[in-house]
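does this look right to u?? adenosine-5'-triphosphate version
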Amino acid sequence: MALLAYVARRLAYLLVALFGVTFITFLVTRRLPGNPAALIVGVLADQSTIDAVTERLGLNEPFWSQYYKYMGQLFSGDLGESWFTSNPVTTDIGNRWPATVELASYALALAVLWAVSLGVISALRRRSLSNRLADALSGLGVSVPEFWLGLILLLAFFGTWKIAPAPLGRTLGEIPPDVTGFYTIDALIAGDWGAFRSAAAQLILPTVTLAIVIGAPLLRITRGFMRETMETGHIRFARALGIPRRSIVLRHAIPNVLLPVSTMGAMMYGYLLGGTVLVEVVFAWPGIGSYAVKAIEHSDFAPVQGVVLLSALSYLIVYLTMDILHFVVDPRTRTHS
Amino acid sequence: MSTMPAHETRPSSEEGDLLDMGDPLAEGDLLDMDTPLAEGDLLDVDDPYEDEDFPPLLRVSDLAVGFSGGKRSTHPLTPLQGVNLSVEEGSAVALVGESGSGKSLTASAVMGMLPAGAEVLRGSVSFEGEEILGASEKHMRELRGSRLAIMFQNPRASLNPVLTVGGQIAEVIRVHEDVKRKESRERAVDLLEQMGIPNPGRRAKDYVHQYSGGMAQRAALAMALSCRPRLLIADEPTTGLDATLQQQVLELVVEQVSERQASLLLITHDIGIVGRTCEQMAVMYAGRVMESGPVEEVLGDPANPYTAELIKSYATVRHGRMNSIPGVVPTLRGPLVECAFADRCPKADEECREGVPALRELGGQRGSDERKVACVKA
Ligand SMILES: Nc1ncnc2c1ncn2[C@@H]1O[C@H](COP(=O)(O)OP(=O)(O)OP(=O)(O)O)[C@@H](O)[C@H]1O
Ligand code: SF4
Ligand SMILES: [Mg+2]
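got this back:
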């Protein structure tokens, strides 16, 4: 069947891509400045201690044999151990990944909500207020770095008006019992409104920051494709045969726009799932982005490799899912003549 | 006859209710315009058909359309300079002319779908005896697809790639008639069958990418004819199709229109097909009709030098030599003050530059009283 063949081919690409990612991250992390062995044993240790640790970690072995060992571990689901937290990397990531996914998901949802609707509306009304608003917001999102936007929002809502809580992680209240790892969902499952509110309050500013940043390109793409679609022959023909405006927009135009826009959305989600380093740092968000930063500071190879691999994997999987979805939904691929 | 150009300015407000979602296609088109022209303007036109007792199905009188070109533009385009055209009940009329002469723009004005930035400067379009130039968008929407339909070139672009062909036809039927979904679908299949599409039940569920160009144009024709319009405007319906298909599709259009006792306005470049398909024709140049009348009379004995040149250039192109009329179609800025063809016309002299020749009855021995010509030398 066409779909199965398609999925198989795409999965093969995915494996090749992942293999490439492991190799490149391995190569790059080995080239990071600083000898981890020296950092582990401390500055006062003598050279023989450092050498002993280097030997124990296998860092004096040739590059290829190190890589071979690393891949062997990887296939058994072992991402190695963090020298800094002294936890297995899988444990650390398991603790931090839900924080990143929760933030990423809310940010994507909010971005799609505002950017796609404003994109469609502003495409329909050329010289309108909605268009100027769209220009302003997409300009802001494209030109202002995300950490800067985050800081400004913090300054305004926490610093000046004091309506936002302190940016100290995922919640200032009770941590709800762990079911999904997403505090807002877990709080709802537990029926704990207080916990939900404090988790949601922490989410608002980083979510808005990210939603503006990733919403900007989404808005531009939506507006561009919507304008283009409204100029096409089939829209003109539909209008010329009296199809009402409502149907022209909702039934004839938007489905054609949704295909490219959802691809863009998937790319954005993949990017967010890799951990948005700067926003996580600004809001002290304990996700995998801030974890990776700390690991790099300490020349901690294993977590860096683990996070990069996870980012790549989530990006590829989101993208693949979207592709397969399109393959199924788009009549042009679904019904091959 | 008096001609008072009535320059209409568009309502400038583009903002407003977001849910209403104004029109992106055409900020300046006739959408949402309830009173684009004052009534007096419509009556006071250069109308050569003034004394008729029975108005034709479609009558375009002294239609002038311009593009303001934005605030900064000092040279507004005025591509239509007073078009006069009529289509009788049950007849097939060809509209020919070089590229850029304003054929499609005339059709857009009739449909109430002028492109963005276009404005009606003066004139009248009456359909079934009713003035429709400047009618409300709601009224035009009811008319479009039901009494008045149009089809364009490039049929594969005319159909939506993500909706089934049958579904698109059925939607047009449901929009204009109070029928159930199931019935509209059955009628869509019937229409596809009438258009000669094999296996119509299955093909109705297909998408346009599964159709060849010729099949897609048959489907577009089915869509345009789905609610039995009185007039079909076909704007170069076969341009872009294979030569062998052109003939078939054209014959189908003519046959299906006449089977429904409807009228056809066939816009084409190809003078060669006019004789086989239409009884009447109008020759357009630079936003004006230069000559009109029965096809045999116009082609057999052209009264306007432009028509003669057009026929000559067509004949030579057919014999493999590209030999079009020397010179180019002028870009029209502001109202014409002389015969637009004067710069290219072999018969031109000072008299041709004294004013714009009106489209008048030819009279004399040369033809029936249906023949009209706009030339001081004819
Ligand atoms: N959207 C537009 N904006 C500006 N000018 C336009 C627009 N559409 C048409 N025009 C002007 O109107 C003139 C007539 O165009 P129109 O499309 O009616 O020509 P046509 O006779 O249909 O030509 P063709 O045979 O190439 O289709 C053009 O030469 C152009 O100057
Ligand atoms: S009016 Fe003069 S220029 Fe115009 S077509 Fe007739 S002869 Fe030619
Ligand atoms: Mg045209």
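The pocket of magnesium ion (ligand 3) is lined by residues B 103-104, 235 (CB under 6 Å). idk if thats expected tbh
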